Amino acid sequence: MTRLEELVKALPPEKHKEAETFLESLLAEKDRKPKRPLKLDWRGALRHLRDEYTSVDLQHKAREWWGD
Question: Rounded to whole angstroms, what are the CA distances from 4 to 19, 31, 52, 55?
Fold first, then answer.
């Protein structure tokens, strides 16, 4: 018996479905295409506003937009 089989047998029956779901998600992960790297070509685009706004100002504005 493999270690994995031992671990599954040691689980309480109510956890078997959770373990099965987790293992299926691991298998699905291997079939996914690798994500492309994040593009940062916009970096520095708002540099001219650096002296007008702080990061805290921007956080407050974002909350305003989100309705929180």
Answer: 11, 22, 58, 48
Can you give the pTM of this predicted structure? 0.44
Buried b / exposed e along 47-56 (16+ C-beta atoms within 10 A): eeeeeeeeee
DSSP string, 4-65: HHHHHHHS-GGGHHHHHHHHHHHHHHHHSPPPPPPP-TTTTTTGGGTTT--HHHHHHHHHHH
How confident is the model over 26-68, as pLDDT tens digits? 998 887 777 788 888 888 888 888 888 888 988 898 898 888 5
